[in-house]
Amino acid sequence: MRYQFQARQQQQRVEINRLRQANAAQQQSLTQLEQSHQLLNQVLDSLADGIAVFWAGRNQQGESEDFRWLMGNQVLADWMGRSPTDLAGSCAGEPSPLEVWLASALGPDLPTKLDLPGVLNG
Predict the structure, then answer these.
(1) Mean pLDDT of 77-89
(2) What is the pTM of this model?
């Protein structure tokens, strides 16, 4: 009985060490991912032009039907009248303050459907 208890304790120690190593590896990967994300943000924010990154949502037929903002630089956020944090996760089809203003200025001729990331089509 004592041997079984010791064997079980040894198995648990091995499993704990394995989990600690896996956790350390995940923490290292997370740190590298965060550093890469910060670098990408710095590169995007250094651009003079507004730029955004979208995720394309697709329906069962594989057709694009929705675009979500993943990130955008400060120039674009300023142009849209929102912060980059506000834009992240929002639907590209949702009207922004700029689009509301354009709609009032241009009337019904304003394109309203997004078929390509960042490109308005009628």
Answers:
(1) 80
(2) 0.53
